[in-house]
Task: inverse folding
């Protein structure tokens, strides 16, 4: 039976900007020895011709840095849901080598899951030059457009910066727990609607025989824990028509209200990644967005900025029904598979 | 922009049992002269070979009883939403003759609209012997089962009793406005969900090319008036699977809560119709249900009870968006047309 939480969320997960503005609280710096062991692990995997995703954490031990990643995951899951790791060793590496370094780090964060209908565990966040989010099949990681506040499907999204754009691309994070507390105070009549869930467009990545959109809750409360998933607004807005319906005004109001609260200046922090920075956000308790980015003054295209993304589920993570995050354990194989990048 | 009402509804529409228990407040009795003019009008229409639905109200004047029907409609729309007219002259008439009498009365209530995908303006509420409501195509008026609280699509539902069952068939009415007031007090977190709407099964009567279910609000607030539509729970429960989805727990909670409040003893009144009784309910402000009925002690079948139903929109009725009652103006022609009764 569903339980709609009517008390504010307390503890470090319900933060405002002022609580997290001192980024040293959630920043972890890899020292030279840590960088060296990560790089050497990656080189060894490459020399053996192994696929990093076929390996277990214990087979890739990091005696110096494993503890840092464990503290980082603890901060994500049980703290503010926000962490930055600086100094990931990617300087001078090929894209394939950087993938392997990211894989080594990923093994120490948790279990990486497929992020699209093709089964990719690492995706490139860059301007893929295949169109805009208002098209019917494009996803956020494939464009250089601004993205509104949203969460990703698994427990944690990890973004590793390889190159930054000439301009833009700032990253913003807000606490979904604090958004809930504000909703409880200002718009309690909308709460049930978030628990009931809305439809999200698969963007052409639906598994064979399934409808072109899926239903997902925005908030769920289980085992005394509130969990949030707020997927991209564009997917919520394009889903109803794909199903032959329309978005009701109350649904639009609920989405607008959530985003308006997230976007209040007192509620979010912003940052800009430099090469080697790894930004981590906990999707259970935070939402994030990014600014548009470009090499050009007109913002049209970008050929520079390049992040890699992992979707990670932590070990012994919180339990909640699949309805709270349909694709927490990764996207299934799609009926139609998109072109290779 | 949607507005979610956060104040209780006031006035006669928000009633409890104690406010309406004296049925003389909302009972209208046709005297012998009224009965005679209605019967004579119907006989004249039949003698001319006219279809009553092709006629206008002005062409079928009722100099003695028109005012009674006007007061009745005013009580429905602006009062308690509940009325009983006693003494409709149907004794000894054939079914076709009773249809015409009902049509004459209907013209003086408002505009009758099609109630199914076949375009019928009068439907027979009886045990059609075509199965149960848990089947995929059966509608409430076609079975002898108990029906939970619900509303019909137009402003007014008028039920004319031709014959009553040996047992059962009691009719219950509750104020949807009072249900709203209780929700506001006890479960305000669910309100937005009712405005957002849920899906209802077409039961095979979808217009060509449309999905097998439609989305409809439960409450809507427009022009300072709250309007309710609560369609049959069975249709809400069977719709998601037809679309390839599921009913979320929060949606189930919202439906359960609505029905639990309606079913509280202090909230509804009950009655049992006798031949010639016409029960009227205003679907904008009330919900109704009926008990199972049967000729048999085991409740299996019924060959006796027979009501006729009209769906009526009143002249200059309240305005609200189509989403609040998708079929207020009648059902469109269905892709698949059911068998004639």
Result:
């Amino acid at each position: 039976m569903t339980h709609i939480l009517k008390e504010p969320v307390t503890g470090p997960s319900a933060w405002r900007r002022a609580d997290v503005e001192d980024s040293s609280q959630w920043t972890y710096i890899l020292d030279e020895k840590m960088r060296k062991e990560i790089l050497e692990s990656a080189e060894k995997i490459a020399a053996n011709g192994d696929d990093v995703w076929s390996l277990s954490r214990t087979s890739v031990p990091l005696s110096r840095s494993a503890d840092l990643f464990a503290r980082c995951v603890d901060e994500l899951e049980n703290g503010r849901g926000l962490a930055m790791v600086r100094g990931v060793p990617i300087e001078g590496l090929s894209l394939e080598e950087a993938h392997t370094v990211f894989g080594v780090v990923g093994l120490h964060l948790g279990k990486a899951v497929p992020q699209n209908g093709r089964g990719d565990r690492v995706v490139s966040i860059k301007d893929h030059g295949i169109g805009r989010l208002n098209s019917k099949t494009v996803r956020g990681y494939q464009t250089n457009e601004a993205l509104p506040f949203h969460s990703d499907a698994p427990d944690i999204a990890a973004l590793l910066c390889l190159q930054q754009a000439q301009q833009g691309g700032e990253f913003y994070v807000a606490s979904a727990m604090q958004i809930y507390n504000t909703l409880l105070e200002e718009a309690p009549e909308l709460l049930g609607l978030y628990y009931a869930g809305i439809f999200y467009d698969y963007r052409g990545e639906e598994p064979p025989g399934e409808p072109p959109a899926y239903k997902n809750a925005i908030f769920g409360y289980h085992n005394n824990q509130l969990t949030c998933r707020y997927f991209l607004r564009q997917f919520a807005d394009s889903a109803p028509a794909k199903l032959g319906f329309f978005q009701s005004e109350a649904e639009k109001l609920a989405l607008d209200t959530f985003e308006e609260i997230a976007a209040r200046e007192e509620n979010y922090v912003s940052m800009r990644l430099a090469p080697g920075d790894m930004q981590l956000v906990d999707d259970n308790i935070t939402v994030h967005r990014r600014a548009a980015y470009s090499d050009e003054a007109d913002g049209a295209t970008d050929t520079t900025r390049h992040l890699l993304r992992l979707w990670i589920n932590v070990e012994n993570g919180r339990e909640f029904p699949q309805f709270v995050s349909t694709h927490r354990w990764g996207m299934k194989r799609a009926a139609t598979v998109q072109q290779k990048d």
Observations:
- The longest helix of chain B spans residues 32-48.
- Chain B touches chain A at residues 1-2, 4, 6, 187-193, 195-197, 210-211, 215, 217, 243-246, 248-254, 323 (CB under 8 Å).
- The domain at 17-324 of chain B is CATH 3.60.130.10 (Double-stranded beta-helix).
- The two ends of chain B are 43 Å apart (CA to CA).
